[in-house]
Amino acid sequence: MSRSFPRSAFSAALILFGLILWPILHADRLYIDDMGRASEGYLGWGSDGRPLANVLMEVVNAGTPLTDITPVPQLAALLMLAGLAALIGRRFKLPGSWLAALCALPLAGSPYYLENLSYKFDVLTMTSALVLAAIAALDPLRGKLQIPRKMLLLLMALCLYQPAANVYVLLVIAQVVVGQLRDTDPGTLLRQSASQIGATLVACVLYVVVLKHTVRGGYSNEHGTIDPTFFVQNLGHFWHYVLMTLTTLRGWVLLILAGVAVPVTLLGTLRYAWRQWPQAGNGVRIALVLAVPLLPLSLLIAPWGPMLVLADPVFAPRVMIGFGALMTTSALILTAAAPRLRADHRHVIGLLVLPAAVMVLIASVYGNSLEQQKAYEDNLSGNMVDDIAALRLQTQVDGIALIGRAGHPPIVRHNMRKHPILTELLPVHLTQGWGWAAEQLRLFGPVPPMRTVPPETLGALAGQQPNIARAAYRVYVHDHIAIFMFKPSGEPPPVR
Questions:
Q1: CB neighbours (10 Å) of residue 209?
Q2: Of the candidates 296, 321, 341, which is a domain's last residue?
Q3: Segment 238-247, tens digit of pLDDT
Q4: Residue 50 belongs to some domain of the structure
Q5: pLDDT by residue (tens digit) across 224-240?
């Protein structure tokens, strides 16, 4: 196989990843944290244990304060993902142009990674973490510094975005399983696994030191407490989350792709142990026996990685990078198993086209829904800021309060009924008790501070005429607080 850069696989991956990214770019919505960073330019990732994210974004923005430089981060992420697909094609010796692109597509084409791609400021740091973790696993270089190289790459990935480590683990597993399917010498696989384990341990020890010197704040401490007794409970919760958000026929296509690796790995590991057993020594035989149950089981655990031992992990699409990595691992294992089933890479391409089409479809619907949600909330926000200005001409207004949430417009609600994952991917910024409501309103003008309203006040407003009535909300002024009460939107609650 040529050592030159596989340009055809790179070009194919550019097309596929571009189809995923374009709808999000076209929607052009400031997504949650983006609002504060776009208006105030702060960094803030270091306190979450991501100090390298601060460094990267400060360099890309030519210093602080940060500004919205869309589409530069998104295009950089696109180029890195296409390069990673080409690297995967070379590392696993994948023939042709499209097979490598199709195998790599779930890494960032997974419906869960759409949230990561939606952050204008975070897309580059999160994708850089994913790519560095994958390179650490693939390690195309050789030499005496192999373990330090892998360790450094993995440590950098952790310092950019911690869930990317799950990509590393799954691609390591993929190489072992593919090696078995291709009858690689057991000694080679054991040495390869030993180097990965060594690099992982060193990187984790160093990252613990980084955490002790960087993590600050309630959010990080709340979701960073380690308690191994939650392992089984968290494992069930993560898979329940997946099953609840991918319940449609389209979602099951992705679930089948992710799940098919488990039985194929089990059969492949049994076959490999049977073939290697006669000439294997005692140590290798022990490894062969352990691999039979552990490799398939690891595929069910690895997508969630260290998050399984947290007392209160975050359950959100952005932390579920491992699910996309599981689909990629499954695709690579299927490709390696094809010759054993009297098939070739063209048959695998035919199989992978369907989940690729599903991912492009969901990304397109999501991008359109994101655009509709932006227009809806921007219109409401402009009206709300104007209403506050009008009320201040009539009476004293020292604060505002939101009751309920703005919900989603009709088109988005229709899309959510067909694609339940959209319920998790489309945040409503104008939501009671959520700090981003104030940021959303400030994009359209100055507003008084947010206040909380006691329940007895809401009861007193039941029979009172609103100061302002609009289709989406009513406005009442009580004790110098403008209280915006949203009407029920009739949409399903988020999956939890």
A1: 9
A2: 341
A3: 999 999 999 8
A4: yes
A5: 678 888 999 999 999 99
